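Notebook p. 47: complex prediction with fe (ii) ion.
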Amino acid sequence: MASPTHKLPSLGYSYDALEPAISAQIMDLHHSKHHATYVANLNAALASYSSASVPDQIALQAAIKFNGGGHINHSLFWANLTPASSPDANPQAAPQLIKSIGETWGSVGGLQAAVKAAALGIQGSGWVWLVREQGGKAAGRGGLRIVPTKDQDPVVGGEIPIIGIDMWEHAYYLQARQFPLHYLNGKASYIDNIWSVINWKTAEERFLGGREEAFSVLKSSL
Amino acid sequence: MASSLLRTSTSALRAATRSAKPVGAAGLAGTSFVRGKATLPDLSYDYGALEPHISGKIMELHHKNHHQTYVNGLNAAVEQIQEAQAKGDMAKAASFAPLLNFHGGGHINHSLFWENLAPSGKGGGGGPEGELAKEIDETFGGFEPLRKKMNAALAGIQGSGWAWLVQDGEKGGLSVITKANQDPVTGSLKPLLGIDAWEHAYYLQYQNRKAEYFDAVWNVVNWETVGKRMS
Ligand SMILES: [Fe+2]
Ligand SMILES: [Fe+2]
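Predicted complex, structure tokens below:
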């Protein structure tokens, strides 16, 4: 039985559209190489899965989790970014979410400080996510949390990913001194600057919707 | 565990930690921690000396920034543990164990890494010799199969981490293992050769083409150091 083949989703903007926060070179490599490799490896693992023996299937599960997670996480990431000039990059594009953030962290600044602390605490490769607990009251207090995940572990279970930030070194390292904003090993400034290209409209939609809506980006890449 | 780490450590590690005891989880239960502070060890070659296989820019950032951050993190963790311990708050002291493992591991791993590298043609490259070559032949069927095995291990790391050629201090045999993030090689295993598979180790030069870095790094492996680590 042939399993559906996953495809690399297209970005809703050009590779250079997130400059100066994220350089075109990083976006190009990140999307056309890193994400494409997760998709290719996921498809390869799924293709051999159904005809594999049970021990081989168990061995393939690590590859499916890693590459499937990589595909899910990057698909969510591209959709929660937008050019800084877009109205969607303004937190006002997410009135309900901002209200809830205010109740939880006092302000967007409070959220940003908490996200930064979580991101800097990751020991190795990983992601930091703003999530909402499914079933939690959308506009109510307590539904929002910050969750760091390791490597390509996706946010699974009862949580809805709202904003994800890739904390792998490949996400920022190439921005060296010649760039207006430079990172290299300075991941704190990468986190500071990525807020200028966060897509608050997408974040609001994920916040108000369920997991179905949050993961809808994956359906379009099947 | 801490003392076995000390026994297996190299001169680089001893120099790097000076009077400091190497860190390990066992250190938490110990009565004394570190007398001196961990310091960044000097490299025995210039930043540009491993080119074209590892760029000078990578070496400089890797040593001066990344390794220094682990040194600072280790010293901070040790200090916080000592403070908590002095107040008799063992739960709080224990809560710093992950930081100690991460930064202590980062310091140990990088100290070993710098010493198991050398400029190509000036101690770097070629292949294992003497007893080490004999052991590698017996275990892996030769240097080339070892290289392939280690490169496959490096390529298989899902995230950040290291691949190590290790010797079992009790049973004696060689093997290739991987460690996640900055987890150091511990227990009866003795690190002989470590390759850093974090993206910061190659990204500025090789970007996503990490297999090219894993191939190139063998041109700067210091086999004399690796051989000396074997008992
Ligand atoms: Fe990524
Ligand atoms: Fe490193």
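Notes: The beta strands of chain A are 126-133, 144-150, 159-166. Chain A touches chain B through 21 residues (CB under 8 Å).
Next step: compare against the earlier run before touching the bench.
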